[in-house]
Design a protein that fits this description.
about 425 residues; single chain; mainly alpha
């Protein structure tokens, strides 16, 4: 086994680079190369080439650019405004009114984009202008609902997170998608219930103007017709996957094709918009693949130094698997305030997975549990990344965004506790279908 100080030096270098603002892919990749070069020499470059080829030619990971493209087309074609308008008509009358629209729309958009930051940014632009500026809603409630609703993008399937996690942890993408369904619904309902209770107690949080009559049945039906494209996308992706018609990658292709067809049908996607969607897909996919390649290099370096075995021994020495979960949860919550959610998952998994396996936890369950922790990290004050995204797109004070997000953060933490107490929330559907 190579000298341990080399690995410690490489990890210290990675932390210094990350603190200095270097891109995560470079910081992790350079640390992996530094750790392996003293013993492998030039063969390290060959390993980089092999890992790069293995990653970019992975059939499972092809789903990533397809799902990213689907989300880019939806955003570029202006379908988000149609979704927002349709849901606001459909559910107007619920306590919380348009704030409930934020949560409901984020849940649906999450199932089409798979990105927490994209969901928060997209819905934040629409909701803040309409609700706070135009209608005089309570700013903290609106900001908190959008920041929290955006986190659903990484839990509700199809989730890019689950695809990458499945590739690293050698798990079924389909089982992970199913595992996220019930927890995603529970979290969404928790958010909506909190909003309803608070607005019943204080109707002034979401005042109805004199020029805002209650929508008629006809208008509600129109609202349903406006959100049907998103329902069609969800059925096309998940229906083809669980109907046995397509693999996860093929289902992603079905979703991308359906998004193009819907945008073409509405005549809202121009050639310039299509070009923008393609460029956005290339940028996002290249970033994600680069991070994955770097993470694989670091994982090989850790295995080379015997870290997985040491992690397993550490997990066994704790005596209680739940103490291990507590340590992992605290680590994710603290680091989630600094790192972007996807990058944090990639950095932590090589250290975490051996301990989780040694403790006897189901890896599908842990993938869902980890995702809930990452969601909570995005909302953790004072520097949760979703807070900065919402502050950036709305111009609201960061403290206002943070205060509005705290109740939703507590709901997410409660969902994590429920997953520990009732693992069947994440394992019941996978056990029925696959």
């Amino acid at each position: 086994m190579p000298p341990l100080p080399i690995l410690l030096g490489a990890i210290a270098l990675m932390l210094v680079l990350l603190a200095g603002g270097v891109w995560i892919a470079f910081a992790v990749g350079v640390a992996g190369v530094v750790a392996m070069w003293p013993t492998m020499g030039a063969r390290t470059l060959t390993l980089i080439g092999l890992q790069s080829w293995d990653t970019v030619t992975s059939f499972v990971l092809v789903a990533i650019p397809l799902f990213v493209f689907m989300g880019e087309v939806i955003s570029g074609a202006g379908l988000i405004e149609r979704l927002y308008r349709g849901i606001s008509r459909l559910i107007d009358g619920l306590p919380g009114r348009l704030v409930q629209t934020n949560l409901f729309a984020c849940s649906i958009f999450a199932a089409c984009s798979g990105s927490a930051l994209a969901s928060a940014a997209t819905m934040g632009r629409v909701a803040y202008r309409e609700q706070v500026v135009k209608r005089g809603y309570h700013p903290q409630l609106v900001l908190g609902s959008v920041a929290a609703g955006g986190t659903l993008g990484i839990l509700i399937p199809p989730s890019i997170f689950f695809i990458v996690y499945a590739s690293i942890a050698d798990q079924s993408v389909g089982r992970l998608f199913l595992g996220g369904v019930v927890p995603g619904i529970v979290v969404s309902l928790g958010f909506m219930l909190y909003t309803a209770v608070r607005c019943v107690r204080d109707p002034g949080l979401t005042p109805r103007g004199a020029d805002e009559p209650t929508p008629t049945l006809r208008e509600r039906v129109r609202g349903l017709l406006e959100i049907w494209p998103f329902l069609l996308l969800i059925v096309a992706v998940l229906g083809s996957l669980y109907g046995g018609v397509a693999t996860p990658t093929e289902a992603a292709g079905v979703g991308a094709a359906a998004a193009l067809a819907i945008a073409a049908g509405y005549r809202t996607l121009t050639w310039a918009g299509l070009r923008t969607a393609c460029l956005g897909t290339v940028r996002t996919s290249a970033m994600l693949f680069f991070i994955i390649i770097s993470a694989k290099l670091m994982a090989i370096a850790l295995a080379y130094y015997g870290v997985p075995l040491a992690m397993k021994q550490f997990a066994t020495s704790l005596g209680s698997p739940y103490l291990l979960l507590l340590i992992i949860a605290l680590a994710y919550l603290v680091l989630g305030t600094v790192f972007e959610d996807f990058s944090l998952m990639i950095i932590m998994l090589p250290f975490i997975l051996p301990m989780v396996q040694a403790a006897g936890f189901d890896l599908v369950w842990f993938g869902v549990f980890m995702t809930v922790l990452l969601e909570a990290g995005l909302l953790t004050p004072p520097v949760g990344l979703n807070l900065f995204v919402i502050q950036g797109v709305t111009g609201a004070p960061l403290g206002q965004v943070a205060r509005g997000s705290v109740p939703f953060l507590l709901i997410l933490l409660g969902a994590g506790v429920l997953l520990v107490l009732f693992p069947g929330l994440a394992l019941w559907l996978p056990s029925l279908v696959m």
